[in-house]
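Supplementary Methods. Inverse-folding protocol.

Structures were first reduced to a discrete structure-token string of length 400. This string, shown here, constituted the complete conditioning input.
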């Protein structure tokens, strides 16, 4: 009996039920409800669009995105690309998007590093370190972000004037005008070296992946660091030398009432970056702490039984397993940091929200301006989510 039941020839798929045009058939009910819901959504959207068009026509308000090609006349203090008030609104909004990305990308990196360190410190056996980390987390998370941004901006505005600027290191000046740092006199050779470094990162990743695959096949360890040094250091140096080997450094110098030369980090950007980093790091610290605690104690004991040092156990055994718990909620914090950057308007940093608000006030294109802001944040958020979901799938446990 058991043999005949296990024989695949005796296994039959159940017959499919025929679709009956009756309300008693749950499939018919499901189709009807879906059609009604989709129809209701389409009707509401159509009504909103028609109502908006009618109101705009009555008030004689122009619509469309033709204003993007008009001269902006909008001064922007910080811009990563060339910009003047004579540029178009499209270029001004592009500058705003780049300023938002500059805050979001650097803030995510710094918040991840700081939050990971604080999360590990909360689990430290050192009583003082653990308590200080706990106080940091509780205070930072309980104070509204806007108040923290205003706090940091007030401190930076209270710094001395450029003539009495703080000079902690040679060539570095901190004043109420921002932070001045030495910077390379950028030439074509630097651009080629930067491209070579990016290519070296990809080459190092591909080489390490190939060596790990071969090690899984024959069990022979192969060192990666010689090739990594060649790709990450040797290749950029060669590109830098072929590009003319430029070595000029632009040093900041006090001229008149302000510094000239070098790289400037404005007080607005500095305050926004510090506020977003410290605030988000408090939440990331708790995520990291929870992820480490989610790894069973047996993993620690097994690794220590092999003679591994505590730091090695944390890096090589615990954290790789904790990432499966850390990555999903970490994605939400990255999205929160990006969206919280819109508070930059409160301290005068010109991001996409600030520039778009000025644009819609000057042109009267309120709907288009709000739509641009929504599209920018939607695109950035979806990009972060896609990347983190891809990374999460790479580190997920695979059933065998």
């Amino acid at each position: 009996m058991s043999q005949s039941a296990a024989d695949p020839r005796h296994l039959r798929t159940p017959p499919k039920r025929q679709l009956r045009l009756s309300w008693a058939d749950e499939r018919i009910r499901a189709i009807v409800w879906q059609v009604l819901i989709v129809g209701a959504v389409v009707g509401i959207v159509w009504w909103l669009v028609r109502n908006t068009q009618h109101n705009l026509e009555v008030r004689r308000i122009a619509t469309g995105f033709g204003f993007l090609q008009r001269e902006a006349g909008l001064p922007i203090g910080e811009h990563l690309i060339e910009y003047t008030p004579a540029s178009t609104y499209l270029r001004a909004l592009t500058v705003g998007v780049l300023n938002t990305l500059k805050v979001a990308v650097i803030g995510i990196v710094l918040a991840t590093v700081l939050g990971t360190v604080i999360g590990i410190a909360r689990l430290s056996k050192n009583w003082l370190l653990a308590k200080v980390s706990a106080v940091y987390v509780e205070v930072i998370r309980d104070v509204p972000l806007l108040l923290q941004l205003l706090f940091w901006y007030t401190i930076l505005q209270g710094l001395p004037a450029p003539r009495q600027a703080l000079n902690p290191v040679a060539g570095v000046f901190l004043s109420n005008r921002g932070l001045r740092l030495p910077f390379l006199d950028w030439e074509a050779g630097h651009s080629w070296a930067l491209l070579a470094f990016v290519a070296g990162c990809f080459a190092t990743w591909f080489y390490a992946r190939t060596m790990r695959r071969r090690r899984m096949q024959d069990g022979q360890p192969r060192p990666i660091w010689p090739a990594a040094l060649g790709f990450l250091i040797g290749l950029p140096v060669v590109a830098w030398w072929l590009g003319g080997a430029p070595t000029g450094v632009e040093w900041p110098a006090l001229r008149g009432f302000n510094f000239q030369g070098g790289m400037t980090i404005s007080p607005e950007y500095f305050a926004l970056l510090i506020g977003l980093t410290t605030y988000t790091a408090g939440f990331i610290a708790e995520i990291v702490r929870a992820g480490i605690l989610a790894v069973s104690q047996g993993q620690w004991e097994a690794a220590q039984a092999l003679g591994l040092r505590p730091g090695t156990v944390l890096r090589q055994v615990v954290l790789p397993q904790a990432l499966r718990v850390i990555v999903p909620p970490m994605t939400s914090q990255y999205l929160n940091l990006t969206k919280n950057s819109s508070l930059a308007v409160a301290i005068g940093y010109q991001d996409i929200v600030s520039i778009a608000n000025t644009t819609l006030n000057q042109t009267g294109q309120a709907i288009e301006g709000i739509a641009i802001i929504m599209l920018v944040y939607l695109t950035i958020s979806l990009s972060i989510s896609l990347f983190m979901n891809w990374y999460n799938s790479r580190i997920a446990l695979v059933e065998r």
